[in-house]
Amino acid sequence: MAGRPQRGHRSGRLRSPFSRAFGNSPYVGIQFDPSHYIRQFMDPYQAARDWVDKIYDVHLKDTEIKYQVLPAHGDQSPAPAQWFRYRIPGQGQIDWPKSSRSLQDKGYAGAMNIEHEDDTYRPGYTGMKSTMDIKRVSAWVCVPAAVVPV
């Protein structure tokens, strides 16, 4: 189950319905993506702390908020004036060391993966910048992998 909040929801309001869905099952959990919280102006660090016992996978994807677009269009801007875009880790608003601490301090030892949706680095890009950024971020967020019961 993806830990993807919808507009107007807060992690506290999601906790009750998700808890009912999870029950006490060790087999049902969240694929947590902090970038979705950023684009909804929610706190991904608190959400990670709140949900850590049910997070089995973390997407390492960033979100850049285009604050210059918001005054003219709000969060309902038409393309191509979209007010946010997904970025590779380290190129948006997420504080990755803080994100890592939010999980590690609560004992998270599950999987993490880079979800690439950054149009800046689509096929055809031949530079090294994206690789270097990913190496830098992976040094910040290395967490030992846990074995999830089958």
Keywords summarizing the entry:
15% strand, disordered C terminus, alpha/beta, TIM Barrel, 4-stranded parallel β-sheet, disordered N terminus, 150 residues, two-stranded antiparallel ribbon, 6 helices
Plain-language structure description:
There is one protein chain. With 150 residues, this protein is α/β, with parallel strands linked by helices. The protein has one domain (2-141): Divalent-metal-dependent TIM barrel enzymes (TIM Barrel). 34% of the residues lie in helices and 15% in strands. The protein contains 6 helices and 6 strands. It has helices at residues 11-22, 34-38, 44-51, 70-73, 96-104, 129-141, and strands at 2-3, 30-32, 55-60, 62-65, 84-87, 111-114. Strands 1-2-3-6 form a 4-stranded parallel β-sheet, with no helix packed on it. Strands 4-5 form a two-stranded antiparallel ribbon. Strand 1 (2-3), helix 1 (11-22) and strand 2 (30-32) form a beta-alpha-beta unit. The longest helix is centred in the C-terminal third of the chain and has 13 residues, at 129-141. It is globular, with a radius of gyration of 16 Å. The chain starts with a strand and ends in a 9-residue tail after the last helix.
